[in-house]
Amino acid sequence: MNKKLGSTLLVAGTMIGAGMLAMPLTSAGIGFTWTVILLLALWLLLTYSALLFVEVFQTTDSEASIGTLAGQYFGKWGKIVTNIVLLVFLYALLAAYIAGGGGIVAQQVANLQGVESAGDGLKIVSAVVFTLIFGGFVAISTKVVDAVNRLLFVAMLVAFALVLVLMLPKLSLGYLLEMPLDYALLVSASPVFFTSFGFHGSIHSLNRYLEGNVAALRGSVVMGSLITLAGYIVWQLATHGVLSQATFTEIITQKPNLQGLVEAIRVVTGSNVVAGAVALFSALALITSFLGVALGLLECLDDLLVKSCNKRLNRLVLSVMTFLPSLLFVLFYPEGFIKALGYAGQMFAFYAVVLPAALAWQVRKKHPNLPYRVKGGYAALLVSAVLGLIIVHVPFLIKWDWLPAVIG
What we know:
Layout: H1 2-15, H2 18-26, H3 32-57, H4 66-112, H5 120-140, H6 142-167, H7 173-176, H8 185-188, H9 190-194, H10 203-209, H11 214-242, H12 245-254, H13 258-269, H14 272-309, H15 315-332, H16 337-366, H17 377-399
Helix pairs in contact: 1-6, 1-11, 1-14, 3-11, 3-16, 4-5, 4-14, 4-15, 4-16, 5-14, 5-15, 6-14, 12-13, 13-14, 14-15, 16-17
Organism: Alysiella filiformis DSM 16848
GO molecular function, one term: aromatic amino acid transmembrane transporter activity
Subcellular location: Cell inner membrane
């Protein structure tokens, strides 16, 4: 029971992070009603795909990674493609978290110094310090990550409650009823929104932690995702309810990052207390997501090296391999928060939707009598795979000007 609770909080904590904070940045032109509809649709799709992974994990030992499963059912090239996509996804997501977390730290230091915005040098130092401190927990052990995540998750809930108490009284019904500036933005925003339910890169870590307990893993996925969905809807209610589309879009266009979100809320509410509460919540949300994704990436690298190269590295070396590439991306591209989430969303659509549908298709042919099987049959597998492929191609459609670009 203790591990199941920890796993549920890891699922929710991993999801409630950079994706949640980026949603208001990318949904400023969509409006509250259609943002909620998009959230519900993506929650249904991604919870379904996560449960497909639970189904597939019944056919292997609890130590296996998803790359191992892909090799088992699609051969050598299936494993290679899956591992490449997973690594790109996790590194891009980790880079977004480092960029967002480092940016928040840098801005808070700048505020203490009486400076309006943080300089490049401060941003670099903040990103490095953020990675060293919180990456250190991942380098120690999974149990340490679980313990730290529980404390931070509770603190995040308290900060979230404070944000809601301060913001909800300022709601405007007129703002909530505003319609999309362009309905095509719903499609354009989907890759970034997609990452808001993105814990699938850590699901093999949870399966290993729960020692292959299918019921516990299924319960953690469902409860963790429901907690996340509820939090997202209330968060969208708060942000869309206090910010008009025109004002929000103008401020976010000037600062397409987390500080832009905090600044927009400060300007509209006229309260530094509200803005400070949002900044605190943002930091905690990023940290919990950072821990979950980093843990998944570290264990993915460990599994890949052991099973592909027959090399067992100590956890410190694995930690360097986990954090250094993403940190370098942030150092050379410090404003890449939304960009990194966009790349992550593109890779994630393949990894978290197309791949589990394909794996489940193969598993059901070879193992027709598994104890647990997700409802929906082969038709649901096909529909989810097609939706995943559409989302994969959204960034290309934006680049070719067939869809409008989201802010940032």
